[in-house]
Design brief:
The protein is mainly α. It has helices at residues 3-13, 18-32, 36-49, 53-65, 69-80, 86-99, 103-116, 124-135, 138-151, 156-168, 172-185, 190-202, 206-219, 224-236, 245-258, 262-274, 278-291, 295-309.
Length: 318
């Protein structure tokens, strides 16, 4: 749990009813054990017993951890009028707005947190920079991302954010420098390797990109997007040097297990075809066609079906 929230939790104990304090304690124990559902139940009851900003914040943090962002935003908003730690609440609301794609609103909330406590919430500048990048304002994006890095040279997220900004503005070489710096700060972060792979693919360094995808998969066995992309590249790359049907099937199966949607089905089918398993490719596509209700999606799947019926292997442009 974050130190700021712990301080609030201790503070509320001094004036809260005994029952609410006990519920809060049980909720914290549930959080520490990783049982977010149980923690939410305790904090909900704590709010009923003592409707304080502290209890609302704890409940909001629990909902946030459960990715129930609407509920979390509601609790943070209710806590704002009851809590002195408003910088934290503005930051969390801004983080949710960013996740929701409401970038202008996110900027306002995050800027409020940054203004109130510039040192404690310097990382808000990273999200502000990314939000500006999403709105198309690259000048403001780089201003905040540079400022975040100047404030903390070990701010991995700021380097990753600036790498994304460089990539989006057509400067992949500078993007590689920043994401490599992020990897040096934390070499165990799968997302960093995944991002560097995207940059390497953009500059046609396919072999190095595949290596980074495979590193990401080792670090995060559930990174579906990495398994899916690796399967696709190994199955359909126009250069035979990079194709590996057997490995593509392994990665494609993993991606499809993690997320059995049409895209992963198409990629796994391409892997089967590359591995000369056209019957399996057809079986998978036919299965998706029988389950799909969207006629546009069905038409797209039939294109793949016709290709595999003719024994044709798909090749991408690059």
């Amino acid at each position: 749990m974050k130190p700021a929230v712990l301080i609030l939790a201790f503070a509320v104990a001094a004036c809260a009813p005994k029952a609410a304090v006990e519920l809060q304690k049980n909720g914290q124990n549930a959080l520490e054990s990783g049982n977010l559902t149980l923690a939410a139940e305790y904090f909900e009851k704590a709010v009923e017993k003592h409707d304080s900003g502290e209890n609302r914040t704890l409940l909001g943090d629990t909902y946030f951890g459960m990715k129930e962002y609407d509920k979390a935003f509601y609790e943070y908003s209710r806590a704002l009028s009851r809590n002195r730690n408003t910088a934290y609440l503005h930051y969390k609301r801004g983080e949710i707005l960013f996740i929701r794609g409401k970038y202008q609103d996110a900027i306002m909330e995050l800027d409020e947190a940054l203004t109130e406590k510039p040192k404690s919430f310097a990382h808000a500048g990273t999200l502000i920079g990314l939000a500006y990048m999403e709105t198309g304002d690259s000048k403001q994006a780089f201003f905040y991302l540079n400022k975040a890095i100047d404030a903390d040279k070990n701010n991995r997220d700021a380097y990753l954010g600036r790498a994304k900004a460089y990539l989006k503005t057509g400067s992949p070489e500078q993007a590689v420098v920043d994401v490599t710096q992020a990897i040096q700060i934390n070499p165990k972060n799968a997302e960093s390797y995944y991002l560097r792979a995207q940059i390497l693919f953009a500059v046609s360094k396919t072999g190095d990109g595949i290596k980074d995808l495979e590193t990401a998969m080792v670090l995060d066995h559930n990174m579906e997007k990495a398994f899916s992309q690796a399967a696709w590249i190994l199955a359909v790359n126009p250069d035979p040097y990079y194709r590996d049907g057997a490995k593509a099937v392994v990665y494609g199966r993993k991606a499809y297990t993690l997320n059995p949607d049409n895209e992963n089905a198409v990629r796994l089918a391409a892997a089967y075809a590359e591995n000369d398993q056209f019957e399996k490719a057809l079986s998978l596509i036919n299965e998706r066609i029988s389950e799909e209700k969207d006629l546009v999606e069905v038409d797209g799947l039939r294109v793949w079906k016709e290709m595999y019926e003719k024994g044709i292997k798909y090749r991408s442009d690059k």
